[in-house]
Amino acid sequence: MKFFKKSDIVLVLTILFVGISSMLLYRYIFAAQPAKAEIYYKSRLVKTVELTKGKDIHFSIPQNKNVVFHLEPDGSIRFESSDCPDKICVKTGRLHTVGQTAACLPNEIFLKIVPQNGRNNQDIDMIG
């Protein structure tokens, strides 16, 4: 007894091919773009950080000194520490590519990587 037909295998391979190609295309397009990090507190932009290589900076925002960010020498940014109970924001790791996001929900802080040259109409709106 056959579990799969030839058409099922072709369909699965086509879906895999389209998925992998779109992921690689996304990474190719956005990885080369210069980026900046936008930090939001209660849905308001409070700080913008240029993601340039060669800087090693620890900082926090004035609205919440208990959440510390780390701008890494490789041009990525991450949550260094937070006073939230589950530390999901810290476990998210480094962000460096346009479109990546991280959030500390108990502290209402949102970190978003955007293109350095601004946004366009196709970007996703945070509020909706």
UniProtKB/TrEMBL annotation:
Matches recorded under InterPro entries: NusG_2_sf
Protein known as: Uncharacterized protein
UniProt source species: Ruminiclostridium hungatei
